[in-house]
Write a structure and sequence with these properties.
By secondary structure, this protein is mainly α. Helices cover 72% and strands 0% of the residues.
Length: 206
Amino acid sequence: MTSSQLAQAVGRFDGDTPAMVTAAIHTAERAFSELDACDDVIDEASETGQAIADRLSALLPTGAFEDVALELDALEAVSARVRGTNQTRLLLHRVLGREESAKRALPTVHHLAGSDLPSLPSSYTDEVGFDDLMAMAAREEELAPLLRETHTERLGAVAAHLVHVVEQAAAVGFADEVFAQDSVREARHAYELWVQCLKERRRDLS
């Protein structure tokens, strides 16, 4: 409902109190109806977001980066649908005389950096040097099980973070614009970090 539509709905009363009351009731009924429609969009977005998080939980361990990227595209589309209701919700709350002051306390969207992940073991980081390449190769072979384990930990940490970010956004139905945008941005960043970890594992273990 736009401002002009609201003015048209209420109309002019010219001192006709009953007509004014009737128009006010009809306007409130329409406002509540449209607000319910916006809430339906938010509820649907919450369900869809959780479904995306569930699919990500299943996809990330498989390394299916293209399928994961498609899920993030779907996440952005869900967020955009809710964002499209923002102006309408704001106007309707004003019409009903109840500004959205009682907003839900939102969690923090934590940023995950590569430096937060476990460091990859390597003979190059050993404090003791090596006399020849054979000794270095032997050390690399010795470190191989730890290297595999660390790659698994790194990928698991990024995957868990990505799913958590999506679940947080879904829990509030993407209703807060800033929080939703921060969540989608961090989900994209986590995806890029996850792809980087996949490439590093392929490089080291192939």
